[in-house]
Write a structure and sequence with these properties.
The chain is globular. Helix 4 packs parallel to helix 5. A six-stranded parallel β-sheet has the order 2-1-3-4-5-10, sandwiched between helices. Strands 6-9 form a two-stranded parallel sheet. The protein is built from eleven helices and twelve strands. The protein is about 45% helix and about 15% strand. It has a domain of about 220 residues: Rossmann fold, CATH 3.40.50.720. The longest helix is centred in the N-terminal third of the chain and has 21 residues. It is an alpha/beta fold. Bound molecules: NADPH dihydro-nicotinamide-adenine-dinucleotide phosphate and the ligand C[C@H]1O[C@H](OP(=O)(O)OP(=O)(O)OC[C@H]2O[C@@H](n3cnc4c(=O)[nH]c(N)nc43)[C@H](O)[C@@H]2O)[C@@H](O)[C@@H](O)C1=O. NADPH dihydro-nicotinamide-adenine-dinucleotide phosphate binds next to helix 1, helix 4 and strand 6.
Amino acid sequence: MRVYVAGHRGMVGGAISRKLEERGVDIVTRTHSELDLTDQAAVRNFFVAEKVDGVVLAAAKVGGIHANNTYPAEFIYENLMIEANVVHQAYAAGVQRLLFLGSSCIYPRAAPQPMDEQALLTGILEPTNEPYAIAKIAGIKLCESYNRQYGTDYRSVMPTNLYGPGDNFHPDNSHVMPALIRRFHEAVVTGAKEVVIWGTGNPLREFLHVDDMADASLFVFGLDRETYEAHTTPMLSHINVGYGKDVTIAELASLIAQVTGFAGQVRFDTTRPDGTPRKLMDSSRLTSMGWAPKINLNRGVQETYDWYQATLA
Ligand SMILES: NC(=O)C1=CN([C@@H]2O[C@H](COP(=O)(O)OP(=O)(O)OC[C@H]3O[C@@H](n4cnc5c(N)ncnc54)[C@H](OP(=O)(O)O)[C@@H]3O)[C@@H](O)[C@H]2O)C=CC1
Ligand SMILES: C[C@H]1O[C@H](OP(=O)(O)OP(=O)(O)OC[C@H]2O[C@@H](n3cnc4c(=O)[nH]c(N)nc43)[C@H](O)[C@@H]2O)[C@@H](O)[C@@H](O)C1=O
């Protein structure tokens, strides 16, 4: 089997590529500069030339609350273009199997917790990431529509907030976990007495290690196909992938302070947005099929900090 992993140099695409290679799958990759997935003609030429059997779509314009809120046009345009080009050109080239990576932000801001798959399109989205969420909903509907009309087998996974080796540690544009690992680490190195956390510290977030996400992706993509297929009649439009437990941002900050050895004060900057108050996923559909996360938050944060120190710090 030849699988194109779009976004193989990203955190999720990298973890999925490593797992596919461990299983002896022949993977095809292109960097962003070799193939810009917003370029329709280039994507068409790529699929015609490469003749892959499957696609994992882990390429996207990705960022945390500040990036989403500051660059909404880039988040909606680039993600819509990437999804439309990859899904359509994969179909046109006869590719039967595709896995699309969405996000938990597709669900309404006030969805009942934990959020199950049926909460999609039942209410108003969180404004800080609405353009990105709309693009991700379009991705689900692209897959669903091509399956309905053309009989393809395009599946969508909705990950909760992810973290781990290969994350983006940009001070402003990253997600909370890498941002705080970097900020606490730099405070320890410089001897700063205070670390600033955005928002009130009250929002709840669920964090899943990227290696667990990669296992779930392969499971849904069908490398453990018999297990999955036994549970998918009729096929689901999309399926949640979460850790099963959430923490407040203040609790996450205490854990990262402990792991990095920071002993100073934490200050909450309430001029910064909190975003969604809570977004805990109901992942019972997937866990009932046999997948379960293996990496707990304490171990995951420690491993991510070790990776950051060894690689980037
Ligand atoms: N990280 C998280 O917490 C979560 C992520 N997800 C989803 O998982 C998927 C992977 O995310 P993650 O690995 O964290 O993101 P990363 O930013 O780490 O990786 C994204 C990859 O996509 C590539 N890419 C972006 N735009 C283009 C383009 N126009 N053409 C070709 N390649 C492009 C990037 O290349 P380059 O860097 O060179 O631009 C990068 O390698 C995304 O769909 C994301 O929405 C869902 C929920 C949570
Ligand atoms: C995965 C998900 O990621 C984004 O949504 P988000 O969950 O709100 O993501 P976040 O990780 O950026 O923030 C989580 C919480 O943490 C707080 N927070 C504190 N201090 C920092 C901080 O320093 N940086 C960041 N980024 N957040 C901070 C922050 O204020 C917020 O309350 C989506 O836009 C969208 O991309 C998406 O789907």
